[in-house]
């Protein structure tokens, strides 16, 4: 494994992903029944933006830093913005960016729990160290796709699975399709959020077609691009496949994403998309 999220922490893709993640977790909080949050590729959990890796790319400057400089007046965005600020109260500028494990933990209640999976041993050890004194959190050093078999269905019977692979393998989309099918067969009522990169959009179309062919009802696709999606030379955008999304999530994202696009870039090719890949009934 060569991927290190430290180079990319707080970039536009993180902002998009974490805002959507918060919307999903807020929905789970609406019922008192416990829920389980499972993350298959958790990384180290949090990131120092003054570290060498982040300073080398400065990707956070076109992500979280730009958003905090151009704050958006929307309840969901305010929750996200205040959460990030809470990790930087002693600094004049943003220095620390919480990854999705820390963000998700913020929304756990006494009755809820989180399971964080990380394959890379060094990253898994860092994650264990980060959460060693946290309640209701388990960290496992194992393959994220195998974790779907090991931990689904959860005893709580409700919850969210975030699948956020590094896309180092050219066959990653194929792996995703295979393991989404396995996971859904084990736990058809859970909510799944599957992240994917967008470089050339022509590469995404077969993935969407294969998702549709799974025959799973209630699949929402949401995408966010700040550059033209026509080159493999860089990350131009990203998307999330959401299985069993909460009611009206599509409308909420359609309200937020135009403002987020305008806050993070003025590129004329910026775009967002929210569309159903499959309706409520197959």
Automatic annotation (TrEMBL):
The EC designation for this entry is 2.1.1.266
> GO molecular function of the protein, one example?
RNA binding
A Gene Ontology biological process noted in the UniProt record is:
rRNA base methylation
**Which GO cellular component terms, listed alphabetically, does the Swiss-Prot or TrEMBL entry include?**
cytosol
Record-given protein name:
Ribosomal RNA large subunit methyltransferase J
Q: What is the organism lineage in this UniProt record? A: Bacteria, Pseudomonadati, Pseudomonadota, Gammaproteobacteria, Thiotrichales
* Zinc-finger keyword on record: no
Q: Which InterPro entries match?
A: RlmJ, SAM-dependent_MTases_sf
> Where are the residues marked Interaction with substrate rRNA as a site?
3
Instruction: Give the multimer and partner information.
Output: Monomer.
- Task of the protein: Specifically methylates the adenine in position 2030 of 23S rRNA.
Question: Is Ribosomal protein one of the keywords UniProt gives this record?
Answer: no
What the record says about family reads: Belongs to the RlmJ family.
UniProt-annotated binding residues for S-adenosyl-L-methionine = 18, 41, 100, 118, 143-144, 164
Please give the organism: Beggiatoa leptomitoformis
């Amino acid at each position: 494994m060569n991927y290190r999220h430290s180079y990319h922490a707080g970039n536009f893709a993180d902002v998009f992903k974490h805002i959507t993640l918060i919307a999903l977790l807020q929905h789970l909080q609406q019922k008192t029944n416990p829920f389980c949050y499972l993350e298959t590729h958790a990384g180290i959990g949090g990131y120092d933006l003054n570290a060498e890796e982040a300073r080398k790319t400065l990707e956070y400057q076109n992500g979280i830093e730009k958003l905090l400089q151009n704050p958006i007046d929307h309840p969901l965005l305010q929750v996200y913005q205040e959460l990030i600020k809470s990790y930087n109260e002693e600094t004049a500028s943003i220095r620390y960016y919480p990854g999705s494990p820390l963000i998700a933990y913020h929304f756990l209640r006494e009755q809820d729990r989180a399971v964080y999976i990380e394959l890379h041993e060094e990253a898994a050890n860092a994650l264990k160290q980060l959460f060693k004194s946290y309640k209701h959190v388990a960290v496992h050093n194992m393959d994220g796709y195998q974790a779907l078999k090991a931990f689904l269905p959860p005893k709580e019977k409700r919850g969210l699975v975030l699948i956020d692979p590094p896309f180092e393998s050219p066959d990653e989309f194929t792996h995703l399709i295979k393991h989404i099918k396995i996971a859904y067969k084990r736990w058809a009522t859970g909510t799944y959020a599957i992240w994917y990169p967008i470089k050339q959009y022509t590469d995404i179309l077969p993935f969407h077609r294969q998702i549709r062919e799974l025959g799973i009802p209630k699949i929402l696709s949401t995408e966010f691009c700040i550059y033209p999606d026509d080159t493999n030379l860089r990350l131009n955008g990203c998307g999330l496949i959401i299985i069993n999304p909460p009611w009206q999530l599509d409308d909420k994202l359609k309200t937020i994403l135009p403002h987020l696009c305008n806050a993070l870039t003025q590129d004329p090719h910026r775009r967002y998309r929210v569309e159903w890949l499959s309706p409520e009934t197959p």
